[in-house]
Fold each of these.
Amino acid sequence: MHMTKILSLSVSVFAIIALSACNSSQDQHVEPATASPESVGQGADAAVSAKQFRAQVALHGVPIVSADGKFIVVTVDLSNSGSAVMETKGLDPINLGAHSIDANGKVISNDLARAALPSPIAPKNHALISISLPADKTLGYSAQILPVRENVGWFDEWGTKPLVVGPFTACGTKAQGQICDASGKALLSQ
């Protein structure tokens, strides 16, 4: 009986404290969290802005097929046009990622492929990166390629226009196992 009264009193006190917190002034000004360029991509609990995370993704050369025929290899020139360093380590590293999309632009596979950046990319710098798209999951579709800050978001959320390659189709005889680009031309092998 004594324990029930203590528990009841504890719950009542907790409810009063919680309700008084709800009635506190809502006019308090709280500054949004910001991150220094050094902390971006390293697990920072920072407000993400388009100014920090912006990139340009351009096709470098033409897509090719891996020697074993299992991947479509696309090399891109990734330019950092944001204000933050594209970090490669930490809790929220930045990688190059790809979605497969249908003819209407609907995402079919959100996490089609990932490729690590070769090193951090400072603002106003760029790097060439190859990403290997699994052929079996890419045939019949196009691929959108763009950076992703893991555990945070894809760069198109902050204004980056994805590079779209494809659609890719099977061409030639089944024995040849060739993969063709949007124009019907067979991709070269490594």
Note: The mean pLDDT is 79.
Amino acid sequence: MTSPEKPAPTRYPRPPVSLGEAESVWRDLASAATVEGAKPESVRLAVIVGLTRCTDARYSDLLRCTVDSLDLERGSLVVHHGKHRSEHEHLLDDSALVVLRRWLVVREQLCVDLEGSVPRALLLTVHHTHDNGVTVAAGLPITRQGLVLSWRRYVQRTNARYAGVRPPLPTRFEQLRRAWSTAPDSTPTID
């Protein structure tokens, strides 16, 4: 039994950001993504944060999402959660749908120069990358490492911009995700 003064230990060793801070990150990214001429990386990162906010999905869950798992008419996304890949259909809020529609336009532009069929993955690379010394074109499915680097670039820019004004953002996306996963009624699903 734990004493009332001492909080119970959590399984994840790093503390999540507050819900207010997580919502601030979402508003910052969503507003930057909807501006005309927004960088594709900003739009993609806003989609990642918006989908995480609405579905409680981890990086690996988002990497499994395809354009076929998205239903814009119903405003929902089917996510295969966890290692057992349990399927859940999540409702997306209006702000996430706006950013997602913007991403689909950007995504289409990224795929224009690709030869062959267009990838079905929802999240794609936004610029040329290198994989084991080989240059990989933009518009291909992104890897987990690509998502990690994208988040860290955003954190470094944001922490530099708000240094001394607000607490720094964590470099691990999981700490942001947990702010929403611990909030009550944070992920409505359709069962």
Note: The first helix runs from residue 19 to 34.
Amino acid sequence: MRRVGVVLLSGLLLAGAACGSHKTNNASSQPAGTPAEGEVAASPAAGSGPVQAGQAPPSSGAAQAAETAPAEASPGAGPIESAGLTVYGDNLASRWEDWSWSATVDLASTSPVYSGQRAISATITQAWGGVYLHTDIATDISPYTYLRFAAQVTQAGQRYAVSLVDTNDKFIANPYFLANLGDITVGSWKYYRVPLAELGGTAKPIKGIVFQDGLGKPQPALFLDDVGFQ
């Protein structure tokens, strides 16, 4: 099922551009309006900005039927980077779905491809749109240290941020801008390993991964492949 909606926010985006530098999402760097520790933020309202910690992604997607088994993600079969838990590798792992909003997403793009035969292609159609890979079953990522994925863009200057969604369907932390680890490259793949500590996801079960527009406007195609944890 597709999850469609509009993500909003009232904070200010500050994207770091230095290659190889890490910028933590601690309280001192949170945008205005970020909820205090223990406070639950309201769900986003249309047109205001990127997501914040404690907000819920758009909620128009229907939840999957309740199950007791943990969500499944398959071991990677591609390059050495694929070790660990794979959420997307040629297709979404069992019990994962595309709940993206304000974006045109193709889960079976055949070019370019980082490994295997298919990749994700995503074109942001409205400001703050996002690629949302969702499971309704909690996924234990406590054995892992990084969110890993390959990314490629079609135009210089494209910017994105990544977030994790917790078991209450809320964003765990403020968006982490990929520019902190170096800009996504045009026409070639760049492999990212984002520390889970930067995403607030250390030793926590999750229900989703979000790649969100970081410019506040439509963007051309972003390509993602080999998405998972290690």
Note: Residues 65 and 128 are 29 Å apart (CA to CA).
Amino acid sequence: MNEAEELARLVSEIRETVKIMLAVQSPELPRPKVAQDAPATEELAHWSMRVYAYSLLCQFREVLDSTLLLFDSGHVPAVFLCCRSLFEMAAHAYYTKKWATDHLAKKNYDEAWKFMLGINQGSRYMKEKYEKLPPIELVEGPHIGKVINTFNEYFKEHGDNEAREKYSFLSEFCHPNSFAFTNHIDFTEKKDDVVVTFAKPLPNICIQVLPDAWFSSMPLLFSLNELLEVCGDKTLNGAVQEFMKVVGPGAEDKK
């Protein structure tokens, strides 16, 4: 399979994945009747985790769908930006699932609630700008570096820093540096000189990052499904099964 065929296959699989995700119906989630100053209950902890899972799923599928729209219309640099965002969300899903389910397993519902407060409402910008904003409790979410370091566990068969290396590579295209610039530059040698010309990046260079965008769908769906299942919610089971048909053999090993 040549590069053009590989890119076509990849884009087709991303389209199928978007359809699977968009078919998931998000439920209404009334907050349990637990007072703000009362100890957190299991039900409240579950509610906060379900709010997170559906929020992240909605964001991920919209960005993944947007990635296709940008690719189809030839807006190549924006595709690279989306791919990094998708990888971040997959890492975040894995990180949140790991620690939230750990708190639940220990029946530590207060810690689970506090953890999810940072996940769902955390904002470094708001905390630094306002410090306090009663009655809202301002908290920070987990730093992306911490999230990516935890995500390394998902790739443990490939080494200790695979997630960090992938994220670093994707980030290079999102900063004003050589990785981003060279997508627009052509070097032409004329006699003793080198002439630089500029052109619109071709869609085929997306083969550098689209594999990571599509792969990110796997840990995201698996992590959110596991998180929802511990809350007694099996809504994502069908989507996971359909996605595994797209992925093919070996998907079960990554769950």
Note: The mean pLDDT is 92.
